[in-house]
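Supplementary Note 3. Input sequence used for the single-chain structure prediction.
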Amino acid sequence: MMMRFPGQLPLLFVLVVSFLLPQPSHAIQTATGTDDEVVIGIRIAPPFVIEEEDGSFSGITISLWEHIAAELEIPFRYETRDIEGLLLGVEDGSLFAAAAALTITSEREEAVDFTHPFYITGLGIATGYTPRGVWQAFLAVFSPEFLFILALLLGVLLFWGVLVWVFERRGNEEEFGGSTSEGIGAGFWWAAVTMTTVGYGDKSPRTLGGRIVGFIWMFAGVIVISFFTASIASSLTVSQLDSKVGGPEDLPFVRTGVLAGSATVGMLQERGIRFTTYGSIREGLESVRDGRIDAFVHDAPIVRFETDRHFRNEVQVLPRTFNDQYYGIALPLGAPYRNAVNTVLLDFISSPEWSAIRQHYGED
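The predicted structure, written as discrete structure tokens, is reproduced below.
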């Protein structure tokens, strides 16, 4: 006699089917159906991806990815590529993910998916280093701007000196006589002490024409010395600053460099800024140092890190940043593991451990 189990068959069927189906042992099987190592594309971009002397990798992004991989039990190996290689690898599926310092853009989102942003920064501008202190002040005295103003001042004094000498050379030979050079020299001296209101009194016009010239010059001299004082001070101040590049508004008027394939290329193109591309950040900074370009534009934390370690007192990064950049990990379009990665990522970047990592690499 056959026993019947009404109402229990659906449950038995579900249990049998569940038992027969392969069960993933960890998160990576859920994502890819394999225990094999997946390939994670990276690009050397300190402080986010740093290659150590022993061939291992460290950095902000490396720490983040290795935490995600540990949480989701993802076996992986790194493979270094350039920016285009990272994006193409994620797009064609040869890379499981690309973890570097990749900026999230609308154009890139058409080809790959990104995780939630894990780092927000802006673009920085590297320019030639301007020294400070006594040496810079010494150089400022011999700057073209300062020398031009000084020459102009001497020319004004010479003009009024000659003018008073013309009237005084015969009527006041004692003070403005002698040879032409001696007379003009005396007039130049009188114009200088009169303008500065020092007024030694050793020379003074006595003729009517000379006194009219002196009267006019005494009042004009007050205005002239005020003008030249302000001009000289401005010249000395400007010469101590980078007069060519003070911010992004100056980029259309200077020689600008950018990393080939970076998101900055599109931004500069949109703004109509001409630029030269470089294969690496170091090449761009070397061009700034050697005066071949006036500015190199790239993500601020990366260009600061490279400058501090390899171009100290040769290249400086302006304190201002612009055009916010959002970094994310690139994943293939429709990747089934995107939500799992995002969950771990968001939990990690809100933890004290993440703050400690950023501080360790000087980014907090």
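The chain has three domains: 36-118+328-360, 135-239, 245-324. The CA atoms of residues 175 and 202 lie 8 Å apart.
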